[in-house]
Amino acid sequence: MGKGGNKIQSAPGSTEKLEVLIENRYYDVTNLKHPGGSVIKFYAGKDIDASQAFSNFHIRSKKAQAMLRALPNREAESNRPELLAGQNALLKDFDKLTKELEAEGFFKPAPLHVFYRVTEIVVMHAIGLYLLLSGYWLAGIVVLGIVSGRCGWLMHEGGHYSLTGNISFDRTLQIVLYGVGCGMSGAWWRNQHNKHHSMPQKVGHDVDLDTLPLVAFSEKVAKKIGIPLKVWIRMQAFTFPAITCLLVALGWQFYLHPRHILRIKNGAEAASLFTRYAAWTYFITMNPAFGLYGSALTYLAYNWVAATYIFMNFAVSHTHLPVVAKEDRTVDWVRYAAIHTMNVKRGPLGCIDWWMSFLNYQIEHHLFPSMPQFRHPIVSPRVKALFAKHGLKYDQRNYIEAMQATFENLHTVGMDVFYG
User: Fold this and answer.
1) Per residue in 176-200, pLDDT tens?
2) What's the pTM?
3) How many helices (H) and strands (E) does the chain have?
């Protein structure tokens, strides 16, 4: 976790170039100071095509296009062999679909939708605070916890620059939403989340698998741990919603994210965190009805609701699916989405779409991370048809089935780690 501008270098003493393949050209990134950090190294080498990853990560960035053109480059070998059966045809059809969706306006921002989402957050905070200060403690905690989680959903879109289409504005919106609404750092999130998107469920690359000592979603990341930790992991299906989600949130809020903000010297993020705790102190801690201890207890309860809401709903789309070995370099951009993410059905009247802020369409989100998320249900049938054409499973389950699979995986991994 650096400053997000790490210099990409080969191993010490090595003279080997680091190259990435984009649109049939190899680009030398050995000395590139990549704004997104070391994630670019995931795609370095001759045996993996970074074309789809580059285009979908940088669809709105003219700076990225200019940086790419300025790099030393050479033409790729003609007739590169497929690493997987039908890979070239699949990626060709995916590129065609992407161009069609772009031409039809699916990547364009929707200002009214952004206004609605931001207004919803402001109104829910006002309602939650009113309920809390009016003596309806439980109702206020639930509303405030849910809206904090919804700040997490919306800042996620800001971090992908899929809200207004203006990178600077979306980043600022993310900083405010995540800092004030969740007490966390947008810069830290972007650095980590891009690694997840680059290669979901890949050991050593996807940071969402790097969850020890609190939880293990795969036995492959928990082979060499001691007996006390094995006992804890054995119980993780029960501790995940009850304890783990809150511990993660508190660790992020009071250690990991403030440390990152200080490290990168980001004044805007520091101001957002200050605003959050100043508001809490004014409205809650200084209120005689709460006091110091009541304020601390209320904050923990509110944080538990928020963390459980956001982390459990993020978990259903990835954590129980197969992982990719660190040395495996054969999975392409489309297959990562097909095999290692899944969708949750929209539910009656689209209630799950609202509850998960359209991130229940994880397949579409991973294929098109820069597309405004409310459009994912619309493009879903076309993605499903693409998968069917190329023999890929379009994994879509209802909410209960997804939750059941998540907790069954937690239990199975816990037992395997304990007895393995």
Assistant:
1) 999 999 999 999 999 899 889 888 9
2) 0.90
3) 18, 5
Phi, psi of 112 (to 5 degrees): -65, -35
CATH numeric code, 1-81: 3.10.120
Q: Is 28 left (phi over 0), alpha (psi -120 to 50) or beta?
A: beta
**Nearest Cα to Cα of residue 359 among 411, 309, 302:** 309
pLDDT confidence of residue 147: 98
* DSSP conformation class of 41: G
> Residue 98, Cα to own-chain centre: how many angstroms?
21
H or E segment and range at residue 339: helix 333-340
Domain range annotation of the chain: 1-81, 87-420
Token pair of 281, please? 């102190």
Which residue spans within 51-204 are E strands per DSSP?
73-75
DSSP summary character for residue 80: P
CA distances from 125 to 144, 165, 337, 415 (A): 6, 26, 34, 41
Q: Which two tokens stand for residue 84?
A: 């997987």
Beta-ladder partners of 27: 20, 73
**At residue 169, what is the residue type?**
F
Q: At residue 343, what are phi and psi to the nearest 5 degrees?
A: -100, 155
Structure tokens at 228: 């006390």
Polymer length in residues for the chain: 420
Q: Is the dihedral of CA 57, 172, 211, 402 positive or negative?
A: negative
Half-sphere exposure of 338 (CA within 13 A, CB side): 20
| Rounded-to-integer distance, Cα 353 and Cα 359, Å | 7
Full DSSP string of 90-121: HHHHHHHHHHHHHHTTTTS--HHHHHHHHHHH
Confidence of residue 328 (pLDDT cuts 50, 70, 90): confident
Token match 């951009």: residue? 333
CA distances from 387 to 270, 280, 367, 368 (A): 44, 48, 12, 15
Contact 148, 164 (CB under 8 A): no
